[in-house]
Amino acid sequence: MALVPGYSSDEEEVFASGDVFGLSSLPAAKKVRVNDTAKALQLEAAPNVLSEDLLHQTSLVTRPTDTQMNVNIKYDDMMLPSQGPENPFGDRKRFLNQNALAGHVEEQSMTDHAFRAQHLTHAILGYSANPSIDPNAPAVLGSLDSAQTNGFSTIDTLRATKNQRKELKRKRKQRGDLDIVEGEGAYVGPWASWEGDEPENHFLTGVEVGEEEEEEEEEEEEVVKTKKAKPKRGAPGQETSVFHGKSMTDYQGRTYMSPPVAEAPNLLQEVGSQDCFIPKVCIHTWTGHTQGVSVIRTFPQTGHMFLSGSMDTKIKLWDIYTHGNCLRTFHGHVKAVKDVTFSNDGRQFLSCSYDRTIKLWDTETGQCLKRFGNGKIPYVVRFHPDQDKQHIFLAGMSDKKIIQYDMNTGDITQEYDQHLGPVNTITFVDDNRRFVTTSDDKTIRAWDFDIPVVIKYIAEPHMHSMPAVTLHPSNRYFAAQSLDNQILVYSTDNFRQNRKKRFAGHSVAGYACQVGFSPDGKWISSGDGEGNVVFWDWKTGRIKSRLKAHSKVVITHEWLPHDTSKVITASWDGLIKLWD
């Protein structure tokens, strides 16, 4: 009778046994009997292998992670000789006696003198002793014939024989016979001449002598002519300038000095009277310099053209508003131009260069008017801004001095000698009664004009060198580019740092990138080492814009004084760009 309804008695037995899936009917795998310890610990000589090679494999392929092989290799296969080329890097030895990676090295010890003697002998005579201790090695390296000729001697032991010296020695003629006064064999005593020193006797007539003298003079003139080298273009006295244009004057007789009011009426407006904005796009590119541009200066008051000084030794004057072309090129230096500066009216400008000269130029005619120099490299030049002192300029030199020149006389009228490093910048403040200088000695010094005594000395342990300084349009502050990647602001009346105003976030990376101000003083800008121009808000100190302008460092830039958002940038890639 079925105990579980719906199931037969056999099925009930399966339920009772608990083997529902029939696992007990499967053939059981052989298990190691644990109770028999002797059999359990016995090692199996042959591993479990495939009974036959199903894939007919002739080669054994194993993975690096495999720990056992499932194929029995025949004894004949295992005993086969190794085939194929020998591995040259098998045991890292190529020679039988190799004891180093590159070959065989023997240790030797010899004095510097012995080594030098062998080295010179090999260089001059072509052989040297073999220092090897190998008994089979040759005794001499190099030319064996030369060694045998010189008796295997080194250069320092080689001496000329007595006979050789006798042959080389100059021979004196015989003293002569006392009895003979004149002619052959006459007595000359200790005044006997040397053999081979006889003067060549030319018995020439007067005409021939005259002709020969003329020939000699001509030869001398030719020699003098060949010695004179052509002076370099731009050397002292060789200054030139090239005007790039069809005519110097327009139909009204005006030169490029007069501002183009018709093309740019905004030139008549007052500087800084309009609100300024940050430029966004490049609207013009000036090309012409073959190397990096180091300095640019806009024309005073109007700013309708600008000067650029370059490492290609040239100074160029460029037009901004009419055609945007190069107006004139000044060839006046033989090395890279470091700085240029206009006089108040812009009719003249000064340039200084690494060729250790300062030159005064006429902007309109391109003529070099005067040259100055004291043998040191000038790093910065500045005209005195007062109208009655336009004949005076200051130059910061590489010998730590600031030199004051009078252009009328060409004399040095004052020397300001306090800095401990080359002078980088000169900035006039306080109605031009004082000026501030910075130097590689990481200090800022303020001076009264014409008095060579420092009135203010700013030096802190945390200060870095400040190679670029710009005056704020209000004339109340000046901003200094510090080489620890920040711009610091100082007051012009008491020369104290304004700690609230600090502009950072750019990387000048050791370049003297010029600081710029918008004409209304609302924006402060600087180039950086990566080719960007960074703009900050003067009030808040926040970065407002970062403009990718050039492929190399933007060393200098200038805001146009009568425009709201035009900036000229110059870089070491040789390009000058106008942005708006």
From TrEMBL:
Record's compositionally biased regions (Acidic residues): 210-222
SMART domains: WD40
UniProt keywords, alphabetically: mRNA processing, mRNA splicing, Nucleus, Repeat, Spliceosome, WD repeat
GO MF, one annotated term: mRNA binding
Cellular compartments annotated: Nucleus
Region annotated Disordered, chain positions: 210-243
InterPro entries registered for this protein in UniProt: PRPF17 (IPR032847), WD40/YVTN_repeat-like_dom_sf (IPR015943), WD40_PAC1 (IPR020472), WD40_repeat_dom_sf (IPR036322), WD40_rpt (IPR001680)
Pfam family name, one: WD40
PROSITE patterns: WD_REPEATS_2, WD_REPEATS_REGION
Record's keyword annotation contains Acyltransferase: no
One Gene Ontology cellular component: catalytic step 2 spliceosome
The name this protein goes by in its record: Pre-mRNA-processing factor 17
Extent of the WD repeats: 286-320, 330-371, 416-450, 515-546, 547-580
Predominant cellular place of this UniProt entry's protein: nucleus
One biological process term in Gene Ontology: mRNA splicing, via spliceosome
